[in-house]
Amino acid sequence: MYGRLPGVGSVESRVAGEAELAAVTETIVTAFLADPVWGAYSFPDPAKQPEQSRRFWEACVAAAMRFPWTRVTPGCESSAVWIPPGEPEMTDEQAAAFESLVEELVGSDQARVVLGVFEQLDAGHPHADPHYYLSLLATHRDHRGKGLGMALLATCLEAIDAEGAPAYLESTNPANNLRYMRHGFEPYAEITLPNGLVITTMWRQARS
What we know:
The protein is of the alpha+beta class. It has five helices and eight strands. About 35% of the residues are buried.
């Protein structure tokens, strides 16, 4: 399933296959190593962080791939992981396995920190209106600065607009807020973590 990416020449997007789990995961790992929330706050040991992040994100992406809504550029330089309307990010079985994985990766004390982020995100997530949820948007560090991530977002939103559906995301890096707003997202609420980090949730109204 291909779609033209506006403003990025002939670059296209498609739905990622299960065989590309490792490639999509690697893109996300490199993109989030320095993220305010999913970087050192979640994985404070720099020596262990890359491998911990890899297994962490692999579980998240694998769960989302049960839907045909993980979209990538042709070489997985950028990836957008969406959860369609009315669906949970993980099944009950996947969520239980994920919690065990996080504790295995970082220990019980730090697991409470990481899983606490998810609890706050879940508590702040709107459920009244069915919507597409942008769980992850990432560009591999080797391909930053080319506009690929925002172009991939644009083509995803074209498909969502064709369905007349709204969209929702959580911005863990304030530097990205204006980028999302240029694509029609507006601040919805703020979630403050125990250490003072602020996550901005954003909503995009349905468009016909």
